[in-house]
Amino acid sequence: MAKTNVVTWDSQGPDDIIYAYEHDDLRTLTSVTVPEHAVAIFARDGQLTGVLEPGRHMITSSNIPWLTKLYNLALGFKETPFKVQIIFVSLKIFNGRWGIRGMIKAAQGYEVPITLMANGDYQFRVSDVPVFFTQVLGGLKSYTTGDVNAFMKAFINEQVTQQLSQQYYMEMLNNLEVASTSTKVLIEQYFTQRGIELLSLKIAEARTTEEDQKKVFEYLQFSSANGEAFKRYEVMDRMADAIGNSQGGAAMGTGMLLFPQMYQQLQQQPIQGIQAQQQYQQQQPKVLCPYCGGPNDYPYKFCGNCGKPSPQMQAQQAPAPQPAAPQPATPGAGAAPGMRFNNCPYCGQDISGLPKTPKFCPYCAEQLF
Fold first, then answer.
1. CA-to-CA distance for 12 and 36, rounded, in angstroms?
2. Which residue has better confidence, 128 or 288?
3. Quick one: pLDDT at residue 184?
4. Predicted confidence (pLDDT) per residue in 72-113, tens digit
């Protein structure tokens, strides 16, 4: 038998959500005092009889001492069959923390899931006590605040994980406030179904692994409007360095054949921020040195690779022709003395097999001297 017929919640802490009176064999007439910030669930014989509002209440049970003793003697009961439960539920606003590790879609157009690690906080309170008793407390092993907190932590982690997995990581990362609000709106109905009001939810931090972060960054960089052109520019820049460090006409000639095409593509897709530099490079045509095949800006005086003068410089430095008796023209005449080209400096074609260097290139018709 209960030692008292006065029940109250006088040991409540600031974070206590519920408190179940330890005795269930209350006397026939019991006084229950409910504090202002809480309510009390009154369950008799396994049924929810009512919810006691703040104040003092007198409740009754069938636990009459002599009748209970008769049941014990006649039927062999070791305890009273007339069970009464008093469970106090606080209506205060409580704070909680959540943290998840799951998967989320990276970005629009990049549907590959990546790892998501997020955490934050939330606020809640019990709004519908009968529903809370049947849907939450009814599934717990014991009626303690620790059991309720464990349920809340597992429940909100599950709901947040499900909702964030349907969003995009980059959109969420760019605006955590909007992501927090939309997630709260989507999951609060599931709390309402359990008699709980979700007052707020905040995503404090959202991140992924370094490997996934690098993949997302590369995708966003090269899927942007100027990303492809920027990638071409990087390739071209590396090729220019390689050609500048190489020796030999073969590498130079290959580079000169690639540069015009890449410059033309970059003109069709300019890149903001490096557009000025590209335009400057595009305005500087390249010609090959006829001796070593090295590339030079046009016009140039001396080759930057072998140091020999350009055809224009040789034409300027050549001595004035002396009057001489007219002689019959011979095939291939017209080359200046000492002017022997292996390659056309304009088109790069091999002209070393010709008997003499012609005045005009037989491939591109450019004047050689």
1. 12
2. 128
3. 95
4. 555 555 555 567 788 999 999 999 999 999 999 988 888 888
Contacts for 30 with CB less than 8 Å, ≥ 6 apart: 2, 5, 6, 7, 58, 59, 60, 61, 84
Q: Is the CB of residue 327 less than 8 Å from the CB of residue 315?
A: no
- Fold category of 94-212 in CATH: Tetrahydropterin Synthase; Chain A (3.30.479)
pTM, 2 dp: 0.56
Strand 47-52 and strand 94-107: the pairing is unpaired
Nearest to 34 by CA among 19, 52, 59: 52
Letter string b/e over residues 309-318, b meaning 16 or more CB atoms within 10 A of that residue's CB:
bbbeeeeeee
Domain segments of the chain as ranges: 6-90, 94-212, 227-284
